[in-house]
Amino acid sequence: MARAGYLALGIFIIGCLWEAAIAIFALPPFILPPLASIGGAIWSEFPFLMRGLRATLTVAGAGYAVGAVAAILLALSMVLVPTIERVVKPVIVAINSVPVVAYAPLCLVWFGMGPASKIAMVILAAGFTVFVNALQGLQSVDAAGVNLLRSFGAGPFRIAWMLRLPAALPAIITGLRVAVVRSMIIAIVAEMLGAYEGLGRIIYESTQQIEFLTLWAAIIVASTASMIAYGILVVIDRRLVWWK
Length: 244
Hints:
Layout: H1 2-25, H2 35-44, H3 46-80, H4 82-96, H5 104-111, H6 115-139, H7 143-151, H8 156-193, H9 199-208, H10 212-240
Keywords: Cell membrane, Membrane, Transmembrane, Transmembrane helix, Transport
Organism: Oceanibacterium hippocampi
Domain ABC transmembrane type-1: 53-237
């Protein structure tokens, strides 16, 4: 309840600053429209915005799920077989040293304008975030605990299941929380660069048609969806990592 109160207070303060900036600097609507006008746009175009949100969430959710699972499995395989880390990790770092949006033209050529190209980009962005945190968490286990389990005859897989994964959960959940927001960002940016539907497509078309209320409405809907997804991960964090 306290966190919800702080969130409401933060939104209220931002809203007050927003309206105050419009009044003090006499900003025209195309620069910063009143919140009431944005709310009216959301209300009047709600079905249209929800269709776009559904498409964006499908892309972001699919890429997030595949990327997160693949990242955790890859990090675990590197811990179990150190040779894999020495061979694969430099390649992963090299690929992610370039902004993900730079791969957009290639993804569009390889996978087309449909959801597949956006999902591939989200997998790349979200997977790397989860991978870095998961690998760090799995490798930061106390050596004394590992040696103790080995003394009882536990093999690498049993040590990973009983010690490494539980110890790495806080780091993994942190990576998942960061990746969920990043997934929405990449999905929207990818849709802006080339898509048939989605919030990113709505934002791009609204900009081209100078429909700034629709533009802000899509941004608010995307931001709200990201906040809700992040909040779900916070709840999972509390439930799953109860000892933290």
